[in-house]
Design brief:
single chain, alpha/beta, seven-stranded mixed beta sheet, 8 helices, 7 strands, 39% helix, globular
Length: 218
Amino acid sequence: MIPVTVLVVAKAPVPGHAKTRLAARIGEQAAADIAAAALLDTLDAVAAAPVQSRVVALSGQLDDAVGRAEIEERLTDFTVIPQRGHSFAERLANAHVDAAGDGVPVLQIGMDTPQVTAGLLAECAAALRNNDAVLGMAYDGGWWVLGVTDPAMAECLRAIPMSQSDTGARTLKALQHNGVQVQLVEELADVDTADDIDTVRRACPPHSRFARLTSSSG
């Protein structure tokens, strides 16, 4: 058991509110279906990871979400907290503070990398035990995982524009500027647009919800 908390920052997969960039191409319902599959695959991987605790910082209403019953059942293995803040950057920084209540390092991911495995999360958590922070870049220039040993290290996120082509580079620079020792971990593709689906599907196990759903939908 690795003394690390894995934090998943997630949005309820509600049609019209989840994956809006994806919805612009494939429709609100299809985008929400994909978001639900990605979230559940991510939660499965986190639940199987050998870490001390698991937290989900959630926004949106599960009452209106695709896959509500299955998501609620899966969340029984997690501590669920609400997201706080107006901007996404604020919500990320606040989630690190809220998840760090037990004083252990926090490893934060989103719901856009359903190909993540329990083994990869364990590797990231182990790396975090030997460094101030870990950061995993995304192919689109963002990042998919950020781990910090002190929530104060994540405060720099408040000043960084999210979902930009240089978000990852700016996050790394801000951490290092603050004297934080950062270990880079594996780079992954994440799902933001329709063009990302095939790349992520190829990285997922064939039996995963994301792979099955996106294969059947073409």
